[in-house]
Amino acid sequence: MRIVILGPPGAGKGTQAIEIAQARRITHISTGDVFRAASDSGTRMGLKAQEYMSAGKLVPDEVVIGVVEERLKQDDCTGGFMLDGFPRTLPQAEALDRILAAMGTRLDAVINIATPDEVCEKRLSGRRLCPQCKRGYHILWMPPKEDGKCDDCGASLIQRADDRPESVEERLRQYHEQTASLIDYYSGTGVLIDIPGDQGVEALADAIELKLDVLSSA
Ligand code: AP5
User: Fold this and answer.
1) Which of 51, 109, 108, 63 is nearest to 88 (CA)?
2) Tell me: the pLDDT tens digits for 84-115?
3) Of all residues in the chain, what percent carry a pLDDT higher than 90?
4) Is the pLDDT of residue 173 over 80?
5) Ligand 1 center to residue 13 CA distance, Å?
6) Label partner for 90 (CA 20 to 30 A): which of 122, 145, 183, 186?
7) Is 204 in the pocket of ligand 1 (CB under 6 A)?
C-alpha cells in the first residue's frame, strides 16, 4: 500500500507509522528523520533544515519536495511506502500527486490522527529518544526499564531540541496554519481515514489496522 499519515506534532504519527510499515512490509519514510540524519551528517541541506526545525518552522517546500521525490524513486519504495510528515502544505500535497501520477500510481490511504493540542503538548514534553538506535520513549506512557537509558542499546536518552515548549507552540501554530487544511484536500478522495488520536497506542493501532483492512479489501 501507498500510505500517508497526517496529524499534528505529537499525534503519534511516528509511533504508528513504524508499526504499520513493519506489519505491511512497506518502507517507512519520515521527512523529519531524513532532515535530522542530514543535519547529524553535517550536509549543507541538513544544517539549513536544522535552522528551520529548531525554530519550529517548516523546511521550504522546494527542498522537501525534491528530497521526497528522490526517495520515492528508490527500489525499496516499489512495494509500497508509509510517508510520515509529508505532505505538510498544499504545494507538497499537489507535488506528491504529480510525482505518483508520473510513476503510474496513487495513494491508497491517508490516515489522519486527529489529536487535540493539549494532548500533543503532553506527549511531546515527555518524549525521549535514543540518539544511537533512534528508539522512542515517553517518560510516563512508554518509559525505559532503566531511567534515562535505552532498553535496546543502553545509550543515554535525549530530548529533541524542538520539543522545548516554545518550539512546540510554534510547531502547533504551523500545523494549524499550513497542514490542517490537507484534511479537506483529501476528504473527497475516498482514501481518507479519520481516527481520534486521544487513545492509547494499542487502541489507536487496532483502529487504524481495521480501517486499512477495509480499504485494502475494497
Ligand atoms: P517531524 O519529525 O515529522 O515531527 P512532527 O510532525 O512534529 O511529529 P513528531 O515526530 O514530533 O510527532 P509524532 O506525531 O510522530 O509523534 P510520536 O509518534 O513521536 O518533523 C520535525 C520537523 O522537520 C518539522 O517541525 C519541520 O521543521 C521539519 N519537517 C519535516 N517534514 C517536513 C515537511 N514535509 N515540510 C516541511 N518541514 C518538514 O509520539 C510523540 C510522543 O508521544 C512519544 O513520546 C510517544 O511515545 C508518545 N505517544 C505516541 N502515541 C501515543 C499514544 N497513543 N498515547 C500516549 N502516548 C503516545
Assistant:
1) 63
2) 999 999 999 999 999 999 999 999 999 999 99
3) 91
4) yes
5) 6
6) 122
7) yes
Of 98, 87, 110, the closest CA to residue 31 belongs to: 87
DSSP letter at 191 equals -
The mean pLDDT of the chain is 95
Q: Name the nearest CA neighbour of 83 among 119, 11, 40, 34.
A: 34
* Three cell numbers written together for 92: 507538497
Taking a C-beta distance cutoff of 8 angstroms, is the pair 106, 3 a contact? no
CA of 123 to the centre of ligand 1 (A): 10
Ligand 1 centroid–CA 19 distance in Å is: 15
Q: What is the pTM of this model?
A: 0.94
Mind giving me the DSSP string for 25-81? T-EEEEHHHHHHHHHHTT-HHHHHHHHHHHTTPPPPHHHHHHHHHHHHTSGGGTT-E
Q: In this structure, which residue's CA is closest to atom 8 in ligand 1? A: 9
Cβ of 53 closer than 6 Å to ligand 1, yes or no, is yes
Q: How does pLDDT run across 177-188, given as a tens digit for each residue? A: 999 999 999 998
Position 218 scores a pLDDT of 75
Domains present along the chain, CATH in parentheses: 2-26+79-217 (3.40.50.300)
